[in-house]
Write the structure tokens for this entry.
Amino acid sequence: MTRYYTRACNFYYGKNSENLVKSKVTLPLNGNKFISFDEIEIITRKLKKKIKLNKIKYLPTDIKKKITKDVRLISSKKKNFSNLNFKKIPLIMGVLNLTPDSFSDGGKFNSFNNGINHAKKLLREGADIIDIGGESTRPGSKTVNSIEEWNRIKKILNKLKYLNVSLDTRKADIMQKGINLGVNLINDISGLSFDERSINILKQNNTPFVLQHSRGTPDIMQKNPKYKNVVLDIYDFFEDKIKFLRKNGITHNNIILDPGIGFGKNLKHNLKLLQNISIFHSLGFPIMVGISRKRFIGDIAEENDDKKRIGGTLSSSIFSLLQGIQLIRVHDVNEIMQGIKVFKKLLYK
């Protein structure tokens, strides 16, 4: 049986978008009238076809039913959670790595004072939430035991518990300790696959979380990753994982999807995902991308120093904004916010 996928495309922005939505020419993306669309791409494993929204009614009945449902999800307003207002796009997640070995800033902020000061700096610069992590999951990294991971983050988490904080961890016991300290969001790069206890922790606490796609553990994930179709394979992963979580008691919709740029993907995979990222809107959840200083930028720009990849991070962030992505995870909040503010001022006339 052929499986159909729906990708929103041909976007409009700003006042022009608002007027088109009012005239019922376009539909608002995620309920936001300042970004809308009038076209979709219908995709199968064998072909792609773009059609205008007003042509959906002419599709065969079974396909029309599926596409109509997808369009409803794409255009529906997303509920706010974790102190995040999803009408504001893009929201910014600032990165605070309290590790000695993270790929970009390992050892820079893992002292108490440096960590606290950097978190406050990220918030002043415009971050909507701070993502705190005590274990590096860069390609090639090894697992850190729970005791060491918790010792790296517990004092700073306790100090920042009144702020809007996300916890970057794969381990259920760390999740529970973080939730006890008031963490508002769990960000598990393993897609809740690393620790089988994680689902129960999130269920018992009714905690929002980021569901990320990755292939394999960090120490092996970049060893010749392969997909039949990277975009559709990851879409299927999300759809199947959400069904599995529902069966296991996760009934809330406070979930953010992250396709996991750079986690078990090569340059071609990462580019395909970003170019087609709007397909994930039809799953009905907010979308996050982690593109900050990633290797794919270095591959394109021929820049080995990850600290010199801010330009590529900014261009990727703006492209994501144009696709309606709700949340962008970055190290350089000031530079990315500045670029987005100027771009939106020019675009949203």
